UniProtKB/TrEMBL annotation:
Record key words, sorted: Membrane, Transmembrane, Transmembrane helix
Transmembrane segments: 21-43, 55-85, 106-124, 130-152, 182-201, 207-225
InterPro entries referenced in this protein's UniProt entry, alphabetically: DUF1275
Pfam families linked to this entry: DUF1275
Protein known as: DUF1275 domain-containing protein
Domain of life: Bacteria
Length: 229
């Protein structure tokens, strides 16, 4: 989905790296690094943003590998799918309106879900982990479903496999034009920039404080997002 009917905004396929929507998606990419650090290191080796990794983890757990949880991964997968369904419904609600209220609503939804997860984490210290896993995965499903429909090139916010492959395949070394290399590198750097403090906070302070940080960042993104409406 490149733009909504009735939108006067720039089609998503043509937005630049400094466009407000690009800046929001870069911010959310950094949040994904935080989220993966929180959930993998603090909630039993479960992914909530990266479902490829989560499905692989389910395989590890089914094979009896120590330290992996079938239940936690299945909870994450189910909640993620529910969030993606909600994203599809939300896109239908806003299909005849400008892009901004749609994106803002989705980002606010993510912020609220992360805020609830933060409150639960402070109250329970993530024990048992399943409520926090479900809430965070629901938020990530809502975001992934929305980002998928936005279809901004090289801005998936949660996975970098195709981004890295495209970065190499389109490079001058491979005979390409390198025309989107800056955006792709920014996405990689943003993910790492979120993962590093996320891992440090989990290792030294548990899961609640880094979850609070993710909530604050996503809330700021929702408040700050503006385009011509």
């Amino acid at each position: 989905m490149t733009t909504h009917r009735g939108s006067r905004s720039v089609p998503t396929a043509r937005i630049g790296n400094r466009h407000p929507l690009s800046l929001v998606l870069i911010t959310l990419t950094a949040v994904s690094g935080l989220v993966d650090a929180i959930c993998y290191l603090g909630l039993g080796h479960v992914f909530t943003a990266n479902m490829t990794g989560n499905v692989v983890v389910i395989g590890f757990a089914l094979a009896g590998a120590p330290g992996f949880s079938v239940i936690g991964s299945l909870v994450s997968l189910a909640a993620f799918l529910a969030g993606a369904v909600a994203a599809g419904r939300l896109a239908l609600v806003f299909r005849d309106r400008h892009r901004v209220p749609w994106v803002r609503t989705a980002v606010w939804g993510e912020a609220v879900l992360l805020g609830i997860a933060t409150a639960v984490a402070f109250a329970t210290d993530g024990t048992p982990p399943y409520p926090v896993i479900a809430l965070v995965a629901l938020a990530m499903g809502l975001r992934n479903g929305t980002v998928g429909k936005l279809a901004v090139p090289d801005m998936t916010t949660t996975v970098l496999t195709r981004t890295l492959a495209a970065l190499a395949a389109d490079s001058r070394l491979a005979g390409g034009t390198d025309d989107r290399s800056v955006r792709r590198v920014i996405a990689v750097v943003a993910m790492v920039a979120g993962a590093v403090p996320g891992a440090w906070l989990v290792l030294h302070h548990g899961i609640a404080w880094p979850l609070l940080l993710t909530t604050a960042i996503v809330t700021a993104a929702a408040i700050g997002y503006r385009e011509g409406e």
